[in-house]
């Protein structure tokens, strides 16, 4: 797979990288993120054919393409703010 876009790691000092890793881990383990991850796993296991190659959108409660989900359907992510999505 040859992409014209080259993604490189963020260039951080050792101490900054350590602090960023701690922040990222704390966010990933927050109650809201854990609930979203658990919901995503339940939905994927219940319907693997619908989930193939897609992301689960907690806002619309459906599977969408990665591009549509992470780009907020072309609207960008800034306007999402601190929305609380229904997690089942």
Radius of gyration: 16 Å
Biggest sheet, open or closed, and with what strands and sense? 2 strands, antiparallel
Q: Describe the strand arrangement of the main beta sheet, using strand numbers.
A: 1-2
Order of helices and strands: HHHEEH
Got a strand count?
A: 2
Alpha-beta classification: mainly alpha
SS summary, helix count: 4
What's the average pLDDT?
A: 84
Instruction: Give the proportion of residues in helices.
Output: 40-55%
Contiguous low-pLDDT stretches (5 residues minimum) are: none
Shape: globular
Q: For the terminal residues, how far apart are their CA atoms? A: 37 Å
Strand content bin: 5-15%
Describe this structure in words.
The protein is 45% helix and 7% strand. It has four helices and two strands. Strands 1-2 form a two-stranded antiparallel sheet. The protein is globular. The mean pLDDT is 84.
Keywords:
88 residues, mainly alpha, two-stranded antiparallel ribbon, 2 strands, globular
Summarize the structure.
Helices cover 45% and strands 7% of the residues.
């Amino acid at each position: 797979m040859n992409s014209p876009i080259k993604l490189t790691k963020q260039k951080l000092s050792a101490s900054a990288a350590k602090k960023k890793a701690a922040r990222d881990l704390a966010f990933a383990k927050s109650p809201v993120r854990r609930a979203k991850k658990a919901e995503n796993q339940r939905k994927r296991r219940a319907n693997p054919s619908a989930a193939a190659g897609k992301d689960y959108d907690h806002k619309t409660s459906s599977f969408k393409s990665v591009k549509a989900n992470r780009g907020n359907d072309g609207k960008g992510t800034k306007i999402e703010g601190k929305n609380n999505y229904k997690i089942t």
